[in-house]
Amino acid sequence: MAVSDSREVLIEATPAEILDVIADVEATPDWSPQYQSSEVLSRYDDGRPREAKMVIKAAGLTDTMVIEYTWTDTSCSWTLKSATQVRAQDATYTLTPAGDKTKVRFELAVDPKVPLPGFILKRTLKGGMETATDGLRKQVLKLKKG
């Protein structure tokens, strides 16, 4: 059963500062508890990750996923290339400057291969959405403060 959700958060940083945190794929396990490990497999000419391999643990399942990123000055999105427990995953961060802050909208669509009870799937998705927004905000602010 495919599920999707979106969530917004206001972060006291520029889009570039926020995208730098998202692009630091290797550090993702430091601020996102679902990520067990993360490594960049290839990069674009500007140094941003193109493909990454991640080990993620959620809803009692552990999966190794390879994703491909697309970057702009105000967005980051990724599409699932391969996984064992998930058929499809698409996600997008859209950043909109708002004065000295940035409005961050995160959208996620996931289609797990393994049948899960609806309440577990919804709870797992909610936790992932909170980490992708509130967890990202905390990490950005932590790095800004040094």
TrEMBL record:
Top-rank lineage group of the source organism: Bacteria
InterPro entries with a match to the protein in the record: Polyketide_cyclase/dehydratase (IPR019587), START-like_dom_sf (IPR023393)
Name of protein: Cyclase
